Here is the input.
Amino acid sequence: MSKPSHKHPTHVERAGPPLIEMKDISIAFGGIKAVDHASIDLYPGEVVGLLGHNGAGKSTLIKILSGAYRRDHGEIFINGGKVEINNPRDAKALGIETIYQTLALADNVDAAANLYLGRELRTRFGTLDDAAMEAECRKVMGRLNPNFRRFKEPVKELSGGQRQSVAIARAIHFNARILIMDEPTAALGPQETAQVGELIKQLKAEGIGIFLISHDLHDVFDLADRLTVMKNGRVVGTARTSDVDHDEVLGMIIAGKCPPGAVPGPGALQGVAA
Amino acid sequence: MSMAATDNTQTPAMAQEGAVTRFLRATEIDSRMLGMIGALLVIWIGFDAASAFVRGGEGLLGGSFLTPRNLWILLVQTSSIAVMTTGMVLIIVMRHIDLSVGSILGFTAVCIGTMQVYWLGPLVGVGHPAIWIITLALGLALGAAIGAFHGSLIAYFGIPSFIVTLGGLIVWRGAAWSVIRGETVAPMDKNFKLIGGGISGITPGSIGAIASWILGLVICAAIVAMIYNGRKQRKRFNFALRPMWAEYVLAVAGCIVVLGVTWVVNAYYWPKGVVDRWAQQTGVTVPPEGMNIAFGYSIPVLIALGIGIAMTFLANRTRFGRYIYAIGGNPEAAELAGINTRKITVLVFALMGMLAAVSASISSARLDSATNALGQFDELYVIAAAVIGGTSLAGGLGTIYGAMLGALVMQSLQSGMTLLNFESATKDMVVGCVLVFAVWIDQVYRRRVK
Ligand SMILES: Nc1ncnc2c1ncn2[C@@H]1O[C@H](COP(=O)(O)OP(=O)(O)OP(=O)(O)O)[C@@H](O)[C@H]1O
Ligand SMILES: [Mg+2]
Here is the structure.
């Protein structure tokens, strides 16, 4: 495979402090070191792809950022200032929105209720304004997945892709500064996947920072400015997508081999000249 | 009609759709609820017919079940369980269980009784109007505090609700005994007694004919207003509308039920002894042919109705209710959405405890006494009512009105069998079997509908 020939449309400004910096993060479940001294950062308007084999620790790392897990070790900075994220509410208050790999939808309520879960619209009497939420939901879903019609059904009756659209809608609807997308297109058809691609470019242009977890190298090369590869909970290396090619990235994922175009992390294979 | 209207119903075979299906589709009535009302009617008619043979009476079919008196008492007897089951629905929806409600009921009842008889009574004078207010408020606060305590153990210490409330079941029953050392506290305050629906002196615990008719008409007006408003809302957002005839059917059926119930409670009159006592004390002369003074809606039934409406509002129209259902659907997702699931858990259990205290007031007021055995096994009836009413033990699914109907079904069975002179052991066995049978029918029904 050859190096990707395309240029990224936007230039990412990396002069200031990063939007997000996760430093030396570790977490263990029982004996398993799911994330082991991992560091990762993200600048405004940047898409950073997060890659790695199954069980590499990608989801766990970003769940620490989204407040789902509490880290055992390490620090998180936003715009250079240290922050404490102890639960999902903290993360949301900091403008961090997440599309989870498991989607994390309340299966027994409808799309609008899920879209607004935790942030319901209310009437002036303080009661739920279901009609307004449904009307808004129809608008958002219309942009994301125009074929979507099933607004009254509990989301457990929706298809995998429809559910994923609901999860995406929820993450982008509330003016996030930082967006975490954990395999956001895994269940989507080609048309919907292309739409999410367009959406990512649009959000990026608005200055939003995005962590994109994906197993699809083409997607990552197409959308990401940089990529970070993890293996067994540790960071193998980080590189600009323009400085590495597909084969080198595959080598990082499978063998942990850090190519010359990448900055090695603690998980890089030792003693191997690249 | 747009697509959405057909999307809403879940009938698989549209081709063979019968009149019933079309009716249900148009009116958007939950067919499960219709089934329950049908079962209730079968039970009522069956008991009236059966009691016609056993003892006779003035009932619709010559029995003694479908009489104003029996139906009035049936409603009063249902109210205590009905109040608690509205809270139990929310607990079960959240994938928890509360086994302690009967014991909380007993404990709060003896505390309320003790305060009235041994503390406030002697302090401010027996029968002082402040007594019932203070003791009721303290009783509700006590129930809420116990519930909140259980909820905290569940939410913050991670102990399963089954275990916490099983412990509570034992602890609070013991605590009830310790407060009064096994004695009976009586009599309750004379104003407080009205909460039970009985007659205190010559003051009835019910609102009489005129107020009942007014209330009935107000409820009818509310039903019509709700249907009208719902239609207006749907129009505003261009959502699908029900056909006009369906709106009329709903409004008329609703009003007939309300006015019918009002008629029944107004057709039950004070017993002659009370009328005489009342006449004597108020100086009214009773005509020789006697005097018909209607009971009307009783206070415990009004409390249960009010709580049913308030809890339905809470469940469907507030954030709190939305969060309860979302947590039941997927607790992890709710937490990730930023919902403070622990706080909600504590609040729901506190609410349950408070409802148990409401039932404690109703039960002890009706018996005009409090004992440490009050409310024993109530937790089982409350849970059974919720489950019969369609609450799924898997969580996420259940309605307040369904559970209250479930309570009415259970109480109807109990009362009917009492009329037929069943032994209490037999009654227990029947009720237990009915519970299992009802849940099985429900499962079959749900599988068919899917
Ligand atoms: N809640 C948990 N309890 C115990 N172990 C966990 C938990 N979550 C993750 N792990 C373990 O941590 C490791 C990393 O898992 P993680 O989900 O982060 O992988 P991933 O890189 O997202 O993989 P995939 O590509 O399959 O999504 C795995 O070994 C997993 O078994
Ligand atoms: Mg993952």
